[in-house]
Amino acid sequence: MTTVFITGASSGIGAALAAQYAKQGAKLGLVARRSDLLEQLRSSLVNPELHSVYALDVTDHAALSAAAANFIDLHGVVNIVIANAGISVGTLTEYTEDLAVFERVIQTNLVATVASFAPFIENMKPHATTQSCRLVGIASVAGIRGLPGAEAYSASKAAVISYCESLRVGLAASGIRVVTIVPGYIDTPMTKLNTYAMPFLMPVDKFATAAVEAIASGKSYKVIPWQMAGIAKLLRILPNWLYDY
Ligand code: NDP
């Protein structure tokens, strides 16, 4: 049975991925800070008793490692790790040079991706030639060309893309696949404030289906942009800097 460890599972994309993997019969490790939402999610999933909840902050590396160790103890091999926890603090209208903001975003989006994968790599190595083992980074189209007003977010996601690509090449011989998923605009609590993007928001379940397929196929890099992306591109409805992915 597939085992999947997902950070940022209490909301949006993480919760939608959890629902899809639970339907496929997977055993899940669900990580986020809000334990009430994690418990709520767990009880709504298929086979709730198979899933473990870890209420922690992913920037607390000791807590994250302890959760990973517990999940490995419970299940032996872990097949998929999705480093999905992320924050966006940009207003999309104001430039920020606030270093505290930069540090918080880089710690949550980039360093915690590294910290989420690290405890699983040695666990996966002996199994990766006989079964599917995937490390999945969640980047953003903002990481491809940048997003004015979300400088810290864009920089963190660009770094996630290049970190995952470096790791992919470095781990290729072991059989562990590293997959970078690059979402566009997906309908989650994170995008609720971006009103200009509303007509283009992709339903989160549709996104999760495409992401689960890409992860299963072992693609190294998959952009899943937004609703009507082709039309928006053709008509140049969205600002130019959003098209080049
Ligand atoms: P949400 O805000 O809905 O969910 C974010 C998740 O991350 C929550 O479960 C939150 O849980 C968790 N999280 C945030 N900070 C921490 C932390 N320090 N420790 C543990 N968990 C944390 O956003 P989305 O679902 O939209 O985003 C998920 C990922 O997808 C993010 O990495 C985001 O950057 C990326 N993405 C999203 C896009 C979109 O259009 N929605 C586009 C491109 C990328 P809690 O608050 O309980 O800790």
Number of domains: 1
CATH architecture annotation name: 3-Layer(aba) Sandwich
The CATH class assignment is Alpha Beta
Main-sheet strand order equals 3-2-1-4-5-6-9
How many β-strand stretches? Answer: 9
Tally of alpha and pi helices: 8
Outline the low-pLDDT stretches: none
CATH homologous group name: NAD(P)-binding Rossmann-like Domain
Anisotropy-based shape:
globular
Average of pLDDT:
91
Structural class assignment:
alpha/beta
List bound small molecules: NADPH dihydro-nicotinamide-adenine-dinucleotide phosphate
| Rg for CA atoms | 17 Å
Q: What does it look like?
A:
The chain has 8 helices and 9 strands. The chain is α/β, with parallel strands linked by helices and about 240 residues long. Strand 4 (about 80-85), helix 4 and strand 5 form a beta-alpha-beta unit. The longest helix has 26 residues, at about 100-125. The chain starts with a strand and ends in a 10-residue tail after the last helix. Bound molecules: NADPH dihydro-nicotinamide-adenine-dinucleotide phosphate.
